[in-house]
Amino acid sequence: MSDEAVSYENDIRPLFRDKDRERMEFAFDLWSYESVKENADLILERLSEGDMPCDGAWPEEQVALFRRWVEAGTPA
Q1: Is the pTM value of this prediction over 0.85?
Q2: Which residues are CB-neighbours of 3 under 8 A, at least 6 positions away?
Q3: What gap in Å lies between CA 38 and CA 28, rounded to an integer?
Q4: Is the dihedral of CA 19, 24, 28, 34 positive or negative?
Q5: How many CB atoms lie within 10 A of CB 30?
Q6: What is the pLDDT of residues 48-66, one digit of tens each?
Q7: DSSP character string of 15-71
Q8: How many Å apart are CA 46 and CA 24, to the nearest integer?
Q9: Cα radius of gyration rounded to whole Å, the chain
Q10: Burial class (CB in 10 A: 0-12, 13-18, 19+), 41
């Protein structure tokens, strides 16, 4: 899995649920590539700490996928 390319549209966007987007709209739009890209480091920090999403931490596999996306340069 770690050798596969990660993209926002195919891999990252589907991780965010409707309620995640609604809860975070005050800060950024989780369904907007540009918005998530601009806030990727902050989002990764919150995901890693288990502070996001608000109703419970993501499984480590999802956090690792988001981390790989950030490390790959946040490809669309």
Answers
A1: yes
A2: none
A3: 9
A4: negative
A5: 23
A6: 999 999 899 999 999 999 9
A7: GS-HHHHHHHTTT--TT-HHHHHHTHHHHHHHHHHT-SSTTSPPPHHHHHHHHHHHH
A8: 12
A9: 11
A10: exposed
